[in-house]
C-alpha cells in the first residue's frame, strides 16, 4: 500500500476557514496548553474557569482586564498597521518605552492644568514613539535594511536608556529603586468609569481611526496595495518610501500612547519593568486581528484576559506564570499553521496496489 500526500494551491478560501481561523487558533492553543495543566496535576476545566469566568464575571477581574487591554490594543495596532504594508514592526516594546519616557518627563516637569497637561503628555509620547519607529522605517525605505532586525535592536537600546534615566536624572521616590517621582493629580489620566482610566477611550478611538483609514481612504488602499505587491504599486505611481515611513511612524505613535496610558493611568509613576512584554505580545495580537482593526481590539481584550486570568490561575492552582507565555507561543504556531491551510489544500491518496482476481471455482466431472 502506497500513501501520497498532495499539496495544491487553493484558488478560493472557504468562508468558514477565512473567518474561523482566529477561533480555531485560540481553541487549539488552549487545548494543547491543557496537556501542560494535566502534567502539572491541575484540572484544565477548573483552571480555565478561573482564567476566563472569574476574570470576566467579577468586578475586579473586568476592571483589571480593561486596564490591561489599553496598552495591548495600542501596541497591537502598532504592529497591525505596518503588517498591512508588508512590514514587521517587532520593536513596539521599544516604542512603548520611548513614549512612556517622553510623556513622563512632560508630566513631571510642567505645571499645567490636567486638561492641558494630560493631552500634552500623549502628544509628547506619540512624537517620541513616532521618531523611534521612524529610524528602522527610514532604513528600510531608503536602503532596504531589514526592519525586523533594526526595530528589535532599537528595543534593547530603549530599555538601556530607560535603565539609565530611572537610575539617574529621572529617579525619584525613596530608596534606590529604578522609578520616577509619583505623578501629580494633574498629570494622572482621569478615570473613565470606576477603576478604568480614560486611556481606554483613547485606545478605542485609535481603533476607529485605523479602521476608517484602512477601509475608507485612498491612503489605506495604497497601504494595502503596497503590502500585497510593492512593484505593481510603484508602477501605479504609489510611493513605497512614503507608505513605509507612514505606517511605522503612526504605529510607533500608537505604541507610545499605550506606554504613557499604562504609566499615567494604571501605575501612577514610571517604574522599570512596567511593561511585561506588551510590545512583544502585540505580535500575536496583530496576527490574530490582521483582517481588521476591530479584530485587533478583540484580540487585545483576549490577551488582557490571559494576563489577568493567568495571574489568578497562578495563585489558585500554583501553575507557573510561564503558562501564559506558552499559550501566546502556541497561538503564533497555530496561526502560522492555519495560514498554510488557507493557502493550500492537502489531500491524501492511498494506493492499495493491484487487486487480485477472485479464484475461479474448480469444476468437477459429472
Please explain how this structure is put together.
It is a single chain. With 366 residues, this protein is mainly alpha-helical. The protein has 2 domains: 1-42 and 319-352, no CATH class; 49-317, Orthogonal Bundle (ABC transporter involved in vitamin B12 uptake, BtuC). The chain is built from 13 helices and 6 strands. It has helices at 15-39, 44-56, 59-84, 92-109, 114-143, 147-166, 199-216, 218-228, 230-235, 240-267, 278-288, 293-317, 322-343; strands spanning 2-9, 179-182, 191-193, 196-197, 269-271, 344-351. The strands form 3 sheets. It has a two-stranded antiparallel sheet with strand order 1-6. A two-stranded antiparallel sheet has the order 2-5. It has a two-stranded antiparallel ribbon with strand order 3-4. Helix 3 packs across helix 11 (278-288), helix 4 runs antiparallel to helix 5 (114-143) and helix 5 runs antiparallel to helix 10. The longest helix has 30 residues, at 114-143. The two termini are 43 Å apart. The chain crosses the membrane at residues 16-40, 114-135, 147-166, 192-214, 241-260, 296-313, 319-341. It is a multi-pass membrane protein. One of its GO terms (cellular component) is plasma membrane.
